[in-house]
Amino acid sequence: MEATYVALCKHGYASLRMQDIAAESSKSKGTLHYHYDSKQELLSAFLEYLYDSFAARIDALEADGPDERLRALIETVLSPRDGETEQEFRTALLEIKAQGPYDDEFRVQLEAFDHLLHERLESTLLDGQERGVFRDDFDAESIADFLVTVLNGAQTRHVAVGHPPEQTRAQLLDYVDRHLVATTDADAANGTNDANAAEERSP
Amino acid sequence: MEATYVALCKHGYASLRMQDIAAESSKSKGTLHYHYDSKQELLSAFLEYLYDSFAARIDALEADGPDERLRALIETVLSPRDGETEQEFRTALLEIKAQGPYDDEFRVQLEAFDHLLHERLESTLLDGQERGVFRDDFDAESIADFLVTVLNGAQTRHVAVGHPPEQTRAQLLDYVDRHLVATTDADAANGTNDANAAEERSP
Q1: Where are the residues of the annotated region Disordered (chains A, B) (predicted)?
Q2: Interchain contact, A94 vs B98, CB within 8 Å
Q3: Looking at residue B138, what DSSP letter applies?
Q4: With pLDDT > 70 as the criterion, what percentage of chain A qualifies?
Q5: How far apart are CA B122 and CA B141, in angstroms?
Q6: Is the ipTM value over 0.85, yes or no?
Q7: Is A38 a residue whose pLDDT tops 60?
């Protein structure tokens, strides 16, 4: 899986060959073919591995309540894990997304990612609404869906035109402050709100 | 250009050959090569043609004021022009976006698209703020950038997981109603706002 990651970053999806993956691993091309019939099958296993890592990563996020959890989810998706290869890796993932309509295996994996992110965002929003941390005048399912769209857009623009994901991260955190976080009566009386409070908390 | 469109829809970007484009046109492969050195060069000309069509299309939008213009821009980007081939075409465009980091010609064209959309959204938002149609407490440049990200995300999810662009369209129009449109004093007194007014206007 590590060799697949490195090979994908180096060669991109379209021109990637089993041989390129073997070259990055301690296994021979023959051994790879013994386990995986095709590049598609190996990459499908790789996407499953990515899904598991991503799920483990977001479920291990430490957050004090739904407001912090929502911000942590946004930051996790929009923060590069590995500066040097992140751009190459994102590009390969976008190539794979463009295979969605042609490859049922990829499609299933891509849908699983989409649903996972959607589900975690929605349950966080619902939790926050129940606890009165978030406003109750929005539809959590629809806003979760909207946020998944924004996160996809940030990744696409990063690859296509070099748009900085940090910019979308800042815009989304501002969106959370202005439109999702509930303003308490005390905040209103003090002429302050959770947005300012969040700003004061940050380093 | 029409032949390139048809061939892209049929074959996608990665496996497209000059021959496939010639097969859809009245020109021979030799004639195509006479005008365009490579597939990249022909596709770059095609992207320029798409840019010009898109610019002409959004500049010809008829709208009564900035609020209507903003909605018309969103609807134009998120409405399929050609139902049957739209999905194939969007897929090919996503493949081309994934080439952004590798191909300087494509990158220039992709950036031009991004800037065009950003500029038209920003000037519409500024116009609306000046006329008091939109709230004055947001940064037009940043919101325009955010909207471009959302529109990119809708297109990516449409291709990757079949997410319906109409859903993002509805969410964005709701976003405009709730967060961008200025609430007038009269609206506040009547317990209504432009959101409801817009709803009443639509069929």
Answers
A1: 184-203
A2: yes
A3: S
A4: 89
A5: 6
A6: yes
A7: yes
Cα radius of gyration (chain A): 20
Q: Which two tokens stand for residue A167?
A: 């910019």
Query: What is the band of A27 on the pLDDT scale with cuts at 50, 70, 90?
Result: confident
Give the pair of three-digit tokens for residue B72. Answer: 């018309």
Going along chain B from its start, the domains and CATH numbers come out as 50-201 (1.10.357.10)
Q: Residues in chain A, how many?
A: 203
Please report which confidence band the pLDDT of residue A192 belongs to, taking 50, 70 and 90 as the band edges.
very low
- In this structure, the number of other CB atoms found within 10 A of the CB of residue B42 comes to 21
Which of B111, B148, B150 minimises the CB distance to A149?
B150
Q: In DSSP terms, which residues pair with A134 in a beta bridge?
A: A181
Q: Is the pLDDT of residue B48 over 90?
A: yes
**Phi-psi group of B191: left, alpha or beta (phi > 0 → left; psi -120 to 50 → alpha; rest → beta):** left
DSSP annotation of A13 reads T
Residues of A in contact with B151 (CB under 8 A): 153
User: Among the residues of chain B, which ranges form H helices?
Assistant: 2-11, 18-24, 29-35, 39-59, 66-78, 83-97, 104-130, 140-161, 165-175, 185-190, 194-201
pLDDT at B15: 85
Nearest CA among A66, A201, A90, A196 for reference residue A144: A66
pLDDT reading at B62 higher than 70: yes
CA B114 and chain centroid, separation: 9
Sign of torsion over alpha carbons B125, B130, B136, B141:
positive
Nearest to B110 among A14, A101, A161 (CB): A161
Contacts (Cβ under 8 Å, ≥6 apart) of A71 = A63, A173, A176, A198
Structure tokens at A141: 């399912």
Q: Which helix (H) or strand (E) holds A23?
A: helix A18-24
Examine the pLDDT at B109 and tell me if it is beyond 60.
yes
Residue-wise over B60-81: b if at least 16 C-beta within 10 A, else e?
eeeeeebbbbbbbbbebbbeee
Measuring CA to CA, which residue among A175, A2, A50, A88 is closest to residue B175?
A175
Residue A153, min C-alpha distance to chain B (Å): 3
Q: Give the pLDDT score at B185.
A: 58
The angle that helices B140-161 and B104-130 make with each other, rounded to 10 degrees, is 130
CA distance A92 to A8: 6
